Amino acid sequence: MSRAKLFVENFLAYGFINVLNKIIPLLLLPVITRLLPNTEAFGFFDMFNLIIGFGTPLAVMGLYDAMFREYFEKDDQQYKYDVTTTTQRIILFNSIIISIVLIVFSSFFSNLFFGVSEHSNIIMFASVALLFSANRSPIQAPTRMENKRKIFVISGLLESGGYYLLSILLINLGFSYYGLIYAKIMTIPVLVLFFWFQNKKFFLKGKFNKKIAKELLKIGLPLTPVFLIYWVYRSMDRIMITNILGTSELGVYALGAKYAMVSQLIYTAFAGGWQYFAFSTMKDNDYKKMLGNIWEVLFIISTYFFILMFLFKDIIFKLLFEGDFVRGVEVFPFLVLAPLLLMLYQILGTQFQVTKKTYLSPLVLSIGVVVNILLNLYLIPIIGIKGAALATVMGYVISLLVTVIVVMNKKLITFRKRIYINILTFSILFVFYYFYFNDYKITIIVSILYIIISAISYFKIIKNYIKKLRR
């Protein structure tokens, strides 16, 4: 099988389940917003998810990615079993400790996230969901590492369909946003059990190995700050909005961010198949050149998708939402770009894992985090939720630029010169989009110009990729 076909098959097959998990929320989210009493209710649920996202990276400690790296280190099956078993036991121990801490200090964390101690019950519910969410990662990993694609499709249907149908039922029964919370707590354990029965041999036939544990922690621990940084990117804006503007504004922002998940149809498809592809081809002689080619193609795809979403933003929100939820359009187009920038970063960041220099990831990402926090503090009081969206995007942009500089200086990737022209023209396009947010004539003109320039520069390359896929 050619590498081009391997990449696309993993992109589509493994990513399909993640795409499915995003499509169902996009279809049912307008229904849920109509059932909830106001934007504040949606804001509370968003904060519940934020808390889970805070504890999960601390429990996993980068071991999920480290497990992928070590799993392909040797062909010895017993070694593979020991890798998965060791990873699972460490994460189980960590998640129990973190859940207990959240429960014991629930009032403190309620003040931290909500600004008041009245919502400690939400903290407790989040601690339970966190326990199962963290352990789902290692338990489902063998399914991906063993290339069992059909099982992922089944699990996706189970999770997405079951969760949202249960949510709608509970909201209709009068539980409001608690219906969303209860549904999540009910569905995650079911998914964990599903994967346990599929992959239990990977955890029963293996044993805890101290040497493997040290190697996993050596790779994973430097990645922990990376995932916490991801959490800051996704969450610091929400915490600041809650404390500066209130939970109602958080609900508006969260809706815009949630529907911006449409861009994650690309990102999650990529993420679902990327690790297997990257680590299984990392020893190829032209790996660096291939990596650069993939990055350039996905950059163009990402920018085209962003343009499409920006031009149709008003139609989408006026058609699907009512009341204050329509204001989510203010942040939607900018937040659409964020997952795509993260995808482009992760392609480059893979080289830090391949070369076992994972300490570079938190260093380059921390620069973007500082920019993100400072811009949030400055822009939210001035332009509200739109400022938070802009701060998030600029944080990712800075991190991506720094990463490009680092990998090129260390000669970890090879780019064609034409990519710099496209980056420059897209930057100009983004500036026009911001200052002419509601001027369709200008935004359409600059969009067409960018598409023409990029299409001309990559026409031959795209044509060659299509030929390779047909072989």
Automatic annotation (TrEMBL):
Q: How does it sit in the membrane?
A: Multi-pass membrane protein
Localization, UniProt: Cell membrane
Spell out where the chain crosses the membrane.
12-32, 44-64, 90-110, 122-139, 151-171, 177-196, 216-233, 253-279, 291-311, 331-348, 360-383, 389-407, 419-436, 442-461
Signal peptide start and end residues: none
For this record, an example GO cellular component is: plasma membrane
Record Pfam families: Polysacc_synt_3
**Keywords attached to this entry:** Cell membrane, Membrane, Transmembrane, Transmembrane helix
Q: Which branch of life, at top level?
A: Bacteria
Record flagged with keyword Cell membrane: yes
For this protein, the record's PANTHER family field holds: O-ANTIGEN TRANSPORTER-RELATED, PST FAMILY PREDICTED COLANIC ACID TRANSPORTER
Q: What is this protein called?
A: Membrane protein involved in the export of O-antigen and teichoic acid
